[in-house]
Structures are given as C-alpha cells and as structure tokens.
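Why should sequence recovery work at all? Because a backbone constrains its sequence more than one might expect. Tight turns favour small or flexible residues, buried strands favour hydrophobic ones, and helices have their own preferences. The token representation captures these environments compactly. In the example below, the structure is given first.
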C-alpha cells in the first residue's frame, strides 16, 4: 500500500468508486472521506471511463458496482485482473444489488476480494475498508 498526500491530507489508501447511482456515489464518498487516511481518487459510472481512470491513477482499492450506466462491473474486473501491468493489483470489492449466488460465485472465480450487498451490507463494506487500511486481514463475511 502506498502513502501519498492529497490536498494536504496524508493518504494511505487510495480508492476508486465505480457506481452508477449518483445518490449512492455521493453517500459513499462522504462516508469514505470520514475514514482517516482514505481518499476517493475518482468516481465514475461507466465501464470505459472506469478503465481509463484506473489505468491513469493506480489505486489500492476499487469498489465496483456490477450494473453501470454503460458496460458493467464484470468487464471492469475482468480487465483489471487480466492486465495487472496496466491497472496494478488493487483489492477489488463488489458492492451491488446482485451480490447473491450465482453472481457471487462468478465474482469469486474472477478473483474479487469481497462481495457486499448494497441492500444490507454497507457497514460491513466500510469495515472492510478500515481493516484494509490498517493492514489487517478482514474476516470473510458469513
């Protein structure tokens, strides 16, 4: 994990937020900014823009929704995992309404670190961010 400075704030965890809902993007950004040493480097709502930004700004953690305005989160994850020389090796979290089997199995097969359901696992996802920041290995969700 890299340590950087963004607008005078020491940042240990650089996060990309890939989410199609503007309301949820805003809410998640606010919640993530409340965690010390976390910076949301960018937010995007479509696959191609996500890939462009991920290539330009290598992050430590990508939070990815499966359903995007254009394209989908699986396409983002597939490219990230297939091309580490282009995108680095950020941890990947799926935060989606489709976080149930068989989609969760498909994400796990693609190498996603964690899968959380938007409907009821927001706090668990934020706990994962905190644990990642502190360098702890978070417990797998039950």
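From this structural description, the recovered sequence reads:
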């Amino acid at each position: 994990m890299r340590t950087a400075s963004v607008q005078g704030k020491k940042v240990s965890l650089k996060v990309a937020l890939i989410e199609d809902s503007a309301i949820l993007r805003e809410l998640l950004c606010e919640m993530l900014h409340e965690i010390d040493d976390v910076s949301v480097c960018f937010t995007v709502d479509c696959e191609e823009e996500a890939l462009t930004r991920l290539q330009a700004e290598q992050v430590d953690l990508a939070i990815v929704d499966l359903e995007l305005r254009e394209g989908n989160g699986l396409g983002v994850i597939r490219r990230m995992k297939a091309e580490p020389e282009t995108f680095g090796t950020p941890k990947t979290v799926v935060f989606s309404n489709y976080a149930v089997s068989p989609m969760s199995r498909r994400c796990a097969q693609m190498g996603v670190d964690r899968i959380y359901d938007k409907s009821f696992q927001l706090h668990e996802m934020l706990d994962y961010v905190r644990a990642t920041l502190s360098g702890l290995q978070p417990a797998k969700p039950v």
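A few observations help interpret the result. The beta strands are 4-6, 9-11, 13-18, 38-44, 61-64, 91-96, 114-117.
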